[in-house]
Specification:
The protein has helices spanning 23-28, 70-75, 92-106, and strands spanning 20-21, 39-42, 45-48, 110-115. 30% of the residues are buried. It is an alpha+beta fold. It holds the Pfam family Cyt-b5. Belongs to the cytochrome b5 family. MAPR subfamily. InterPro entries: Cyt_B5-like_heme/steroid-bd, Cyt_B5-like_heme/steroid_sf, MAPR/NEUFC/NENF-like.
Length: 121
């Protein structure tokens, strides 16, 4: 499964960090402030997606930035109401999709922390 999500161009990643990141801080990292990184959390794990403009202020996936959109990723949804961390009630197929997204991100973006108090890990 791992090779299936390998990037076409190898990515040199830093060792993962587990620094606590508050929801307030995460929300400030939504791609609109160039002095801050653009962050996305998946299952409570925070990824730095700054170098991918698709998650920036004008990108196609900007709706995910500054949030934990685990449910939206699992449902392959770009709806604002789905951009929430809760995913436990989803069916097995959607949970598999979410895990695939987690694997995809973990092979491309540095893990910079964990959402403080996250219950959806």
């Amino acid at each position: 499964m791992g090779e299936r999500f390998a990037p076409k161009v190898p990515v040199e990643l830093d060792p993962p960090k587990d620094d606590p990141i508050s929801l307030e801080e995460l929300a400030k990292c939504d791609g609109t402030d160039p002095s801050r990184p653009t962050l996305i959390a998946i299952k409570g794990v925070v990824f730095d997606v700054t170098r991918n403009s698709m998650y920036g202020a004008t990108g196609s996936y900007k709706i995910f930035a500054g949030k934990d959109p685990s449910r939206a990723l699992a449902k392959t949804s770009l709806k604002a109401e789905d951009c929430v961390p809760e995913w436990y009630d989803l069916d097995e197929k959607e949970k598999t999709v979410l895990n695939d997204w987690y694997t995809f991100f973990s092979k491309r973006y540095n893990i910079v922390g964990k959402v403080e108090g996250a219950q959806n890990t």
